[in-house]
Amino acid sequence: MSPSPFSAIGACVFDAYGTLFDFNAATERCRDALGDKAAPLSATWRAKQLEYTWLRSLMGRHADFWRVTGDALDVSLAVHGIGDAALRDRLLDCYRSLDAYPDAKDTLARLRAAGLATAILSNGSPAMLDSAVDSAGLGDVLDAVLSVEEVGIFKPHPSVYQLAVDRLGIPAERICFMSSNGWDARGAAAFGFRVVWVNRFGQPPDRLPDEPHAVVDTLDALPGLLDL
Fold first, then answer.
1. Which one is catalytic: 15, 22, 64, 99?
2. If you placed Cys at 179, which of 15, 51, 131, 197 could pair as Cys (CB 3.0 to 4.6 Å)?
3. What pLDDT digit, counting tens, does each position of 15-40 carry?
């Protein structure tokens, strides 16, 4: 029987938005003003946010994730016919302190207790990530919070994943990477991480090279996958 791809893991590295932090929380907190537009706006905002990261990377016109998030919100508000400047500011303020998913802190704590290093590796800017980590109370269960701003290009560029190897001092094949984004999971697998796709949203697999090594519904399944 071949050995498990997770048999010699030394660190667990997590995507932030959609994996540890609920990006839908911003529009949900503003549902009093958005009504039945809350969910459609959140979906458009997230899609445009990701689209702009990929396009800026291809264009060689990097801007930090806070700028991208604001630009994506502006076009999304226009798509949904919302022209309220105060509501725009409120939505962005909510995005700075998104709720962590209920399984996030307990999972991170179990990994740390088992002696594994834990880190975030995210498109988010340092200020965004610091705010999210602080508001969710995750600072005491993380060894590092890594932002793409150190390399000036967004995921899934290989230089982003290399950040985790360099900062943690652990080779790629001993790093377990978790993301709820199928494209991110495949980018990380192509780089050489041992990858778990956290398919929170029941999405079909992307038609891209390099499959993740495991698929789970929530982070609760991770300690068992690692035999902890």
1. 15
2. 15
3. 999 999 999 999 999 999 999 999 99
